[in-house]
Amino acid sequence: MRIHELLALGRQEVLPYALIKMQSPRYRHCWLPISREYSRLGCVGWTDYDMCINDALVFVRDPRTFENVWATTTENACFLYSSTNEASADYQERLERLLAEYHFFHGDPPPELHFAPLVAHH
């Protein structure tokens, strides 16, 4: 099933609607993906964003500068689609472009540290 079909079926809680800028003591470009309901992905109802820091994505560069990804951006949010085109056929392509950008979860070790033991054995 394609992503825009999931949106049409009301599965907005599992698909990113936007990224919300987070304050991280470790990383400059830390953004939390949220659903159309403004909740953490997979959740329904109110979300305390500060408690979700480990679910945030860390990017090497500012996601607001990513080309052909966002329907709109603000200082603290980037939106993959707007309320006028929720089931947009290009949502899947926008999401794929976003996920193609180098990123990792805030709660995980940076990939360089994660793969360091593999390098040490060679």
Describe the structure.
- It is a single chain.
- With 122 residues, the protein is an alpha+beta fold.
- It has one domain (3-120).
- Helices cover 20% and strands 16% of the residues.
- It contains four helices and six strands; from the N terminus they run αβββββαβαα.
- A six-stranded antiparallel β-sheet has the order 4-5-1-2-3-6, with no helix packed on it.
Ends distance:
42 Å
Strand content: 15-25%
Q: Mind describing the biggest β-sheet? A: 6 strands, antiparallel
Largest sheet, spatial ordering of strands: 4-5-1-2-3-6
What count of structural domains?
A: 1
Helicity range of the residues? Answer: 10-25%
Question: How many individual β-strands?
Answer: 6
Q: What value does the Rg take, in angstroms?
A: 15 Å
Shape: globular
Structural class given helices, strands, pairing? Answer: alpha+beta
Question: Total helix count?
Answer: 4
The H-and-E topology, N to C, reads as HEEEEEHEHH
Low-pLDDT residue spans = 114-122
Mean pLDDT: 80
Quick tags:
single chain; 122 residues; alpha+beta; six-stranded antiparallel β-sheet; 4 helices; 6 strands; 20% helix; 16% strand
